[in-house]
Amino acid sequence: MDPKHQRAALNDGHSIPVLGLGTYAPDAVPKSEAGEATKIAIDVGYRHIDSSHAYQNEEEVGLAIRSKITDGTVKREDIFYTSKLWCTFFRPELVRTGLEQSLKKLQLDYVDLYLMHYPAAMKPGKELYPKDEQGKIMHDTVDICATWEAMEKCKDAGLAKSIGVSNFNHRQLEMILSKPGLKYKPVCNQVECHLYLNQSKLLDFCKSKDIVLVAYGALGSSRDPKWVDQSYPVLLEDPVICALAKKHKRSPALIALRYQLQRGVVVLAKSFIEKEIKENIQVFEFQLSSEDMKALDGLNKNLRYYPADL
After folding, report:
1. Which N-terminal stretch is annotated as signal sequence (predicted)?
2. Is domain 11-229+263-281 given the CATH code 3.40.440.10 in the classification?
3. Which residues of the chain have pLDDT under 50?
């Protein structure tokens, strides 16, 4: 098997490519760039593309995937596409609508993975972030277990091959896992995870429940001022990471990605720069020693670039 196509088994019988392209970008970045990056990624061998309703780029990403199917580079079944249910669609009767809106933008018949984006419901409507007069986000009272049941129905309908969650902590995962009448366990939990926030406890918990941990922000973050405190250290400038990059004659980004793969984490590499997209797939070409891994484990500061709650 081509090492670029390494996959992790999911608890529902499907599998997920262990390296994916993340497509989130700050508002200032034209949405077309997500499409261009997707095309480049597929050309160089990526088969896992991650997006979301909230990124507002699914039309562009879908167009890019379809163009690569049309030109014969890939078949639909070669691509593993992840989308996410936004928080304004958490009422059970809106869940399928949320997914169908994404499918319509993508012009695809199904997604390979559909995730609850955050464990917090927001007031339904057109606004991505509905706010009151004081500028506070307007939350909605919805039982996430009821949302999960509606997610299960989307899987049964064939609109999503697999279903999972994102940004859930151990307690929120337990709520779903211990739900009476649970039909499908979440196959994964996608969370912020990098060398400054290695999520080791959550990773151990997920492994014990046969849930795959998927890491976003694995290279630090895009440092979008909307979310990220600009005084936070830049992950890829860390001296330990840079020393290991020098030792292995690889980029700091590759060290950060390789670390995740070796601990059994599926990792999303976010870049819209052609050189970096091509470089990041070299993650399969080398290995870190146990001493390297230990040194990298020691970098954890429980530092979040992205806010944990909305």
Report:
1. none
2. no
3. 1
